[in-house]
């Protein structure tokens, strides 16, 4: 099977989602900030809301690959299980004394059980249910409810740690410690899962670089015409953008437009302030304003990158030029600044296009949804009161792996 995402708006054919699971029940008022959530989730309602998201995609003919199912299938491959255990379940977690026993259990555990552990984590008490009597100094030093392996609740946002860019994939280098282990699961899936193991695609990034080279999928938008737009944000560093750009240029991609953003929690990624909704058309948060951009193109040799700084007032023109257009259409909802800030916080600009001019958004962003509809955009809505507590909308919660070409 050939995978390719050559735009943000081509008809969506296949996407990776992660239905929230037991990892969300690890969130507490004390650890939510460390795990990058604004609040704890009501899991059952979050699952219902996510199921509605999936239902709309299925109704529109989209094939859904669930991350936990992909990981389960991958673990059935012995080499993949070995790789995942070497990366995730080490003596650092259980202590040297208990490590061999825990490792033997993990080597023999059903794939579905191990996949859940790698996403939801495991507590001392849960491990002792599997291995009564196992001990180490580490085990004796912690309480039954303490986590030996931390959860990955941000796997909900499948795009951030895995981004398909034209005919290849970037397993992204995550900025925050709470998310870095997500890339381990994706690396294993893309290397060993039967769906990907025999597919021919370049790996633009393997996610193993240091955090000073971070780049996250919420900042990456494949705008088409051989161009990519990348936010330089709270989570994505200039070093990470240059590293990815060099890989993309070596693979034939012709241009990267880097957008220098304000670094804040509210605007952590480019897709929190701007997403593509139709041919040459974007929705944009009014408070983002016009931002400075940097145009990156291949240099005269493989080791060179041509860099051009652009003034803020040229932002839209620079994007239009990258698309080969005279101008782009930017849809900014007319509303007062407080309403705009609330809807931006609620992911009003974080739309997922499933075809040109057809997008999925959160239903609570009434003003933005009404305005986009008035401009001829088909807006399909889903509940987001629980799903949005991690600061992410439909664009964040989806990792497209195949889109049909746009005329």
TrEMBL record:
<dbReference type="GO" id="GO:0016990">
    <property type="term" value="F:arginine deiminase activity"/>
</dbReference>
<comment type="similarity">
    <text>Belongs to the arginine deiminase family.</text>
</comment>
<dbReference type="Pfam" id="PF02274">
    <property type="entry name" value="ADI"/>
</dbReference>
<protein>
    <recommendedName>
        <fullName>Arginine deiminase</fullName>
        <ecNumber>3.5.3.6</ecNumber>
    </recommendedName>
</protein>
<keyword id="KW-0056">Arginine metabolism</keyword>
<comment type="pathway">
    <text>Amino-acid degradation; L-arginine degradation via ADI pathway; carbamoyl phosphate from L-arginine: step 1/2.</text>
</comment>
<feature type="active site" description="Amidino-cysteine intermediate">
    <location>
        <position position="396"/>
    </location>
</feature>
<dbReference type="GO" id="GO:0005737">
    <property type="term" value="C:cytoplasm"/>
</dbReference>
<keyword id="KW-0963">Cytoplasm</keyword>
<dbReference type="InterPro" id="IPR003876">
    <property type="entry name" value="Arg_deiminase"/>
</dbReference>
<dbReference type="GO" id="GO:0019546">
    <property type="term" value="P:L-arginine deiminase pathway"/>
</dbReference>
<keyword id="KW-0378">Hydrolase</keyword>
């Amino acid at each position: 099977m050939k995978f390719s995402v050559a735009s943000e708006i081509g008809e969506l054919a296949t996407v990776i989602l992660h239905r929230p699971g037991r990892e969300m029940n690890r969130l507490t008022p004390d650890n939510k900030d460390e795990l990058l959530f604004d609040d704890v989730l009501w899991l059952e309602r979050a699952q219902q809301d996510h199921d509605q998201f999936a239902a709309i995609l299925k109704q529109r003919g989209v094939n859904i690959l669930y991350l936990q199912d992909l990981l389960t299938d991958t673990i059935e491959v012995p080499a993949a299980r070995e790789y995942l255990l070497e990366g995730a379940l080490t003596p650092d977690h259980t202590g040297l004394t208990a490590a061999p026993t825990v490792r033997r259990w993990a080597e023999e555990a059903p794939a579905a059980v191990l996949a859940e552990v790698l996403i939801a984590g495991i507590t001392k008490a849960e491990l002792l249910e599997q291995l009564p009597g196992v001990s180490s100094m580490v085990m004796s030093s912690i309480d039954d409810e303490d986590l030996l392996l931390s959860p990955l609740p941000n796997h909900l946002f499948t795009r951030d740690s895995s981004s398909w860019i034209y005919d290849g994939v970037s397993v992204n280098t995550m900025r925050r410690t709470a998310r870095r282990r997500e890339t381990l699961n994706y690396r294993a899936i893309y290397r060993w899962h039967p769906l990907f193991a025999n597919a021919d695609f370049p790996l633009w990034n393997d996610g193993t670089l240091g955090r000073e080279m971070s780049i996250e999928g919420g900042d990456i938008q494949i705008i088409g015409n051989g161009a990519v737009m990348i936010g330089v944000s709270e989570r994505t560093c200039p070093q990470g953008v240059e590293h990815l750009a060099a890989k993309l240029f070596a693979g034939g991609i012709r241009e990267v437009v880097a957008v220098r953003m304000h670094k804040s929690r509210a605007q952590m990624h480019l897709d929190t302030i701007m997403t593509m909704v139709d041919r040459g058309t974007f929705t944009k948060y009014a408070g983002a304003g016009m931002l400075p951009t940097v145009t990156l193109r291949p240099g005269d040799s493989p080791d060179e990158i041509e860099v051009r700084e652009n003034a803020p007032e040229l932002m839209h023109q620079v994007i239009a030029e990258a698309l080969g257009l005279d101008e782009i259409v930017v849809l900014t909802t007319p509303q007062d600044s407080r309403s705009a800030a609330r809807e931006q916080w609620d992911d009003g600009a974080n739309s997922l296009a499933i075809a040109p001019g057809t997008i999925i958004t959160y239903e609570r962003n009434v003003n933005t949804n009404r305005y986009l509809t008035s401009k001829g955009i088909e807006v399909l809505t889903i509940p987001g009161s629980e799903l949005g507590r991690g600061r992410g909308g439909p664009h964040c919660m989806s990792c497209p792996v195949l889109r049909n070409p746009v005329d």
